[in-house]
Amino acid sequence: MNVTDIPIYLLDQIGSIHKISLPQQGHTSLVIKIKTREHQFIIKKTEHELYNEWLLEEYNALQSISSAGIPVPKVHAFHKQGKSRWLLMDYIEGISLRHFLAGKPDPKDRERVIAEYGLSLKQIHETKCPANLHRQSDISWLDSMFTQAGHNLKNYGVAGTEELLVRLRDTPLQPVENTFIHGDYHTNNVLIKHNKVVGIIDWSRAAFGDPRFDIALAIRPKQGVFDQTGDKDIFLEAYDRLTITEEEYLFFQEGLYQFF
């Protein structure tokens, strides 16, 4: 990625660029780190119809919660150019929680940071949902997710199957009160510095929805991450709003999430 590849509209807002680098990449966008004399930015670029949609939704969500007290990057611009979409926002210094935990930190630091992770999700769920994300509809959040899951299954390469979607639709789920949710809350999307949560990123699925969806994604085990006895308990004790059954965990993490 060179300076000449970046749209002039964004360059005008960035100013004189000293360095461009490519940090760890996600699966849906090209991530570019920009350093100027006085500031650091992140640019996310997408070129796929679905990912373009998600990037616009992330921009709208970040604008909506900029003053909510949640540690999120400040957004500066969203730009369309042909089939590409560009999002310019501040860079937050920190490492992902997954990277932190995989680095085998001191056990006390590990516990402290997992508790911070739970407290941060509690803060999100106790934040009033922005009006533009609280869509008034006769269709429930879950039914809207089923509809979107069916659309994604038909049009994009997702891990879920038709059989799985039918089974999920036929599975009775104990209702809980909806809250503001992140929609993709997991250890790669939470940034840590000095044993504190300093950033929460990737807000494209933010909505007024079932908080168990966030919990299920938050506690899914990976190698070195949420694979130790007590990790889940530390998280849920800090979160301290509701718990999640094994059946609910499987419904959301091994089920619904496979279509997104």
Q: Name the poorly predicted regions.
A: none
Q: Give the overall form.
A: globular
Fraction of helical residues: 25-40%
Q: What's the number of domains? A: 2
Instruction: Briefly note the CATH topology name of the largest domain.
Output: Aminoglycoside 3'-phosphotransferase, Chain: A, domain 2
Oligomer class: single chain
Strand content: 15-25%
Q: In angstroms, what separates the terminal alpha carbons?
A: 28 Å
Q: What is the alpha-carbon Rg in Å?
A: 19 Å
| Rounded mean pLDDT score | 95
- Computed structural class: alpha+beta
Strand order of the largest sheet: 1-2-3-5-4
Summed up, the helix count is 9
Classified by CATH, the class of the largest domain is Alpha Beta
Main sheet overview = 5 strands, antiparallel
Can you tell me about this structure?
It is a single chain. Helices cover 37% and strands 19% of the residues. With 260 residues, it is of the alpha+beta class. It folds into 2 domains: 3-90, Phosphorylase Kinase, domain 1; 95-259, Aminoglycoside 3'-phosphotransferase, Chain: A, domain 2. The strands form 3 sheets. Strands 1-2-3-5-4 form a 5-stranded antiparallel beta sheet, sandwiched between helices. Helix 7 (211-218) packs across helix 9 (246-252). 32% of the residues are buried.
